[in-house]
Amino acid sequence: MEKSNKVAKVVELEKENVVLLVEDGKNIRVPYDYFDSYPIIGNTVKVYQDDENFIILPD
Fold it and tell me: Which superkingdom heads the taxonomic lineage of this protein's source (predicted)?
């Protein structure tokens, strides 16, 4: 996987994680701690992704 910035949509809120649908159609689960504010289903966030990590970028 190459380094990139992508847009992801919040599709589900689980007990401990937020499920994001990334542009390439993959779902990733992210702990709530990664967000500055509480996410809302339908919101979009920017995600930096490389081979081993992903980071939620501030707006």
Answer: Bacteria
- Find out whether 35 and 56 touch, Cβ atoms under 8 Å: yes
Residue with tokens 């190459």: 2
Mean pLDDT across 26-54: 90
Q: What is the pTM of this model?
A: 0.83
| Architecture in CATH for domain 4-57 | Beta Barrel (2.40)
